[in-house]
Every structure is written in C-alpha cells, then in structure tokens.
Amino acid sequence: QVQLVESGGGLVQRGGSLRLSCAASGFIFSIYRMGWYRQAPGKQRELVATIGSGDSTNYADSVKGRFTISRDNAKNTVYLHMNSLKPEDTAVYYCNAEYLGTRQDYWGQGTQVTVSS
Fold this sequence. Notes:
Order of helices and strands: EEEEEEEEEEE
Number of strands: 11
Distance between the termini: 40 Å
Strand content: over 45%
Helix content: under 10%
Largest sheet: 7 strands, mixed
C-alpha cells in the first residue's frame, strides 16, 4: 500500500522558514521522481520543485533561490526547505511520487503552509 505522509507545515511570518517532509512507503522510493506541488485557494495546483532519482532538481521560477528540495533514500523521505517565505507562498503543499514513463503517480494528503504579512 502506497503512502505519502507530509508534515512540517504551519503558520510562519513573512521572511521565515519551514521544512516540509514527506515520508514514503509501499514503493521503491529511490527510483521515483519526487516532487512538491502546491495549491492556493481558488487556484490550480502548481509545481514547486522536483528531484529525480539521480538527484537532478527543477524549481518553479517563483521559488528559485529560496526553496531547496532534497531526498534521503535511506529514509524514504523527501524534504522541501523553504526560506524567505512570502504571503504568496501560502497554500496546501502536496508531495508527489512519479515513476517516469509509467502511470505510477502518487499523491500525499497535503500540508497547509500559511505565511502572514
């Protein structure tokens, strides 16, 4: 049974930092591309960052230089380090696991991040 369990969300002031974690189970974590997406109220879900099985990373322009995605294959966990947070970063953040070239695509339940001004 595949599970992606996010944690680390919360309320933070502008300029603050948070670290999100996503603990995975039920699949071979190391071969999946892992990603973080977010959805703000009234908006579509959007890509935040991804990290491939070979540790290649990709970021949305809006978070480049502020957010860092990383993975620990020994712990089956992917992280999102978020610095210099802005109110526009407020959203539900979702963890994603995708086995590229297949239909194996899994989502976590989401964790709320709220940045106050």
